[in-house]
Amino acid sequence: MLIKPSTCLRNEYNDISALCKKDNQPIFLTKNGEGDLVVMSMNAYSYREEMLDLREKLLEAEAQRLSGAALYSIDDVNNRLVEIIDGIE
Fold it and tell me: In the CATH hierarchy, which top-level class contains the domain 2-40?
């Protein structure tokens, strides 16, 4: 975890930007010794958002499974995809 004072954002923006991109990790900024902001590259942010979205979908699917939703085997799914591709509905 990299922690820097918030003045670094103003004084060392290019260095912080390069560091975020190089390490693909967030940098935590402090103000008056207290946590204030988190800065990260756009790639790291996008990846994080995609992982959170995937996690949400997986949790929703698991909740549906636990509530008794229909389950499909890999063969069921494969057969259905073949039907869709072949135009059989």
Answer: alpha beta
